């Protein structure tokens, strides 16, 4: 059994606790933990996989290439990035050194599950009405169990642990697609998924 969640009542305390985290080995090689950013109370929370190279250096989520795709898609969906709380399922960058480069490595189930309690605390503090899981790692963390994206993609579903979720792809996936037509189609579908959230939020404003 894991220990009960620590009693953390502010984002400042949460950032400090995340930066002192040794719950899995990823803290050893990362520059710093990358905490969530955004309004202390936001109606929408976006959850990515883990910080990338740029995020690890700057200490902020989605400031690299995937962040560029995300910003554009949010704007096209009618969502202001400044209104959204953006975080990751795993708070430390996992990578493999290759010469001077640091190659992204996917977090494993143990690392995702160890990091999950930080996301739980973020959700308790922010109280978003919708949590968007970007990609498989985020979906595992948000849902609290392995789940296939295609089974739940693009619609609002109730979470067993409270709140509502929408699952979609990770913006890095779009960056990796080589075929231009396919890339455009996947991007359009990504924007359409985000628009589902924008519509629900507009209805309940
Ligand atoms: N990918 C993520 O999942 N999160 C980031 O913060 C950046 C890239």
Please sum up the structure shown:
The chain has 205 residues and is α/β, with parallel strands linked by helices. The chain has one domain: Uracil-DNA glycosylase-like domain (Uracil-DNA Glycosylase, subunit E).
Please, could you describe this protein's structure?
The protein is α/β, with parallel strands linked by helices and 205 residues long. The protein has a single domain, classed as Uracil-DNA Glycosylase, subunit E. The chain has eight helices and seven strands; from the N terminus they run αβααβββαβααββαα. It has a five-stranded mixed beta sheet with strand order 2-1-5-7-6, with helices on both faces. A hairpin with a 2-residue loop joins strand 3 and strand 4. The model has no long low-confidence stretch (mean pLDDT 96). Bound molecules: uracil. Residues 48-52, 55, 61-62, 64, 66, 88, 172 line the site of uracil.
* Sheet having the most strands: 5 strands, mixed
Do you know the CATH topology? Uracil-DNA Glycosylase, subunit E
Kindly give the count of domains. Answer: 1
Class from secondary-structure proportions: alpha/beta
Report the CATH superfamily: Uracil-DNA glycosylase-like domain
CATH architecture: 3-Layer(aba) Sandwich
Distance between the termini: 40 Å
* SS element count, helices: 8
Radius of gyration: 16 Å
Q: How confident is the prediction overall: mean pLDDT?
A: 96
β-strand amount: 15-25%
Total strand segments:
7
Strand order of the largest sheet: 2-1-5-7-6
Q: Uncertain regions: pLDDT < 50 for 5+ in a row?
A: none
The CATH class turns out to be Alpha Beta
What percent of the residues sit in helical stretches (DSSP H or I)? Answer: 40-55%
């Amino acid at each position: 059994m894991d220990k009960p969640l620590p009693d953390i009542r502010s984002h400042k305390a949460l950032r400090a606790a995340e930066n002192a985290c040794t719950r899995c080995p990823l803290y050893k090689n990362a520059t710093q933990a990358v905490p969530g950013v955004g309004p202390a109370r936001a109606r929408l929370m976006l959850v990515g996989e883990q910080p990338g190279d740029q995020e690890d250096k700057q200490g902020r989520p989605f400031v690299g290439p995937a962040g560029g795709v995300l910003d554009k898609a949010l704007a096209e969906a009618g969502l202001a990035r400044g209104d959204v709380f953006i975080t990751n399922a795993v708070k430390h960058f996992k990578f493999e050194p290759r010469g001077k480069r640091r190659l992204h490595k996917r977090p494993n189930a143990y690392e995702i599950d160890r990091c999950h309690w930080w996301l739980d605390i973020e959700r308790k503090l922010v109280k978003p009405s919708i949590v968007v899981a970007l990609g498989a790692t985020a979906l595992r963390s948000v849902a609290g169990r392995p789940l296939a994206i295609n089974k739940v993609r693009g619609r609002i579903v109730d979470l067993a642990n409270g709140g509502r979720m929408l699952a979609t792809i990770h913006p890095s996936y779009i960056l990796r697609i080589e075929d231009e037509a396919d890339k455009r189609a996947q991007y359009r579908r990504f924007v359409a998924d985000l628009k589902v959230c924008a519509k629900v939020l507009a209805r309940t404003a």
